[in-house]
# Entry
Amino acid sequence: MAAPLLKSLAESLGSPEPAVRLILSLVIGYPFALVYRWFLFYQPATVLHLFHTLSGLALAVFNFGPQVYHSAVCVLVQFLMLRLMGRTVTTVLSSFVFQMVYLLAGYYYTATEEYDIKWTMPHCVLTLKLIGLSLDYYDGGKEAVSLSQQKSAALTSVPSLLEVFGFSYFYYGFLVGPQFTLQSYKKFLSFILLSFLSFSALPAMRRFALGFLFLVIYAMFSPYFPDSYFLTDEFEAQPFWYRCVFMLLWAKFNLYKYVTCWLIAVRSHFHLRGKHRWDACANMKVWLFETTPRFQGTIDSFNINTNEWAARNVFKRCRFLGNKAMSHILTLLFLTVWHGLHSGYVICFSMEFLIIMVEKQFVALVNDSPTLTKLANSSLYPLLYVVQQFIHWLFMAYSLVPFCLLTYDKWLRVHMSVYFLGHVFFLVAFLSVPYLRKALVPKKERGQAKQD
# Structure
């Protein structure tokens, strides 16, 4: 009975049925939260783990049917590794290899030329959780002084099977994230994060309303900017400026589907940080995302918890290399592989590295040049801000094209249609920085910057 209704609903909305199931699942999380708050709040931890396991499994079955066994197998194997192999490097390496190979095999056997909502979507979120779990358990055996960002997540004892299942299937983040540690999950159950529980309903509804607003905007405008239009002769026949503007607007509205999911999924009863901030696991900084004119600002505001996971578990653990650029490259390489096997991911994350590197150089140039600093603080700044935003979103869109179109024959055609604008621009920008610095920065400041 439910299947025909869902099919009819999907047809009436003009959306694929898996997408409708996903949105409904995110909304169902709110009744689950109410059940927890009204009936289970003071129950023993065992009852809560069981509730989170069963509710998460129910959502998994609703979306992916019998393919739920993939996640169950990986959670069980992860627990056995922790229990049988102990707090060792072997456990960490075995966990990393098993979980990543399982995920990549899933990508390989289910891959199409489109981005499909299938069991690998929540499984990539789960993969990071389980790899992080092994790292946190390993860190629990280290001296606290040797830990930096990892200290708050370190586990001093091996978790129980039910605790691992509850953590893995917790409806709060099972389908689309965000990432959080087992320690955060345990604090949630022990009410440390819920000291001001009575205040959480209003922030939750505000967050939901904001997510719903982005959903409406996405539903209204995204049909005018379909991915398929990039691959038509009509698009290639348009003027160059039109192709660039279309790509910019396409990227802006396309990202709103991710913003919608993270805003709706993040229920504020798990958000407490400091005094009533309710953002401990927020995955979006919406105001920063909408207003920042810098690429780094967009990265800092988007998919925050995955970025923090990568910083804590990949970037920080590459300190032994003694090279931040190499650590950055290895982190982006891991995220590339974690996203999937398509060439588009490689291009997207390589562009991210190039863009951030060039942006840092230009920011340093502006800070060191009295002329540019004065210009940036002048009355012309509103105009400069508009230009900077246009450049920012144009090249964000250029990088997002391969991420969304996936296969090289598609993204290459789009990049060729705009004459490889992004690669050419940033190559020229990178090569011009030394000459601009020589022309605009006094010799004394250039010498000081070189020493730094």
Q: What stands out?
A: Confidence is low (pLDDT under 50) at residues 192-199, 268-275. The two ends are 68 Å apart (CA to CA).
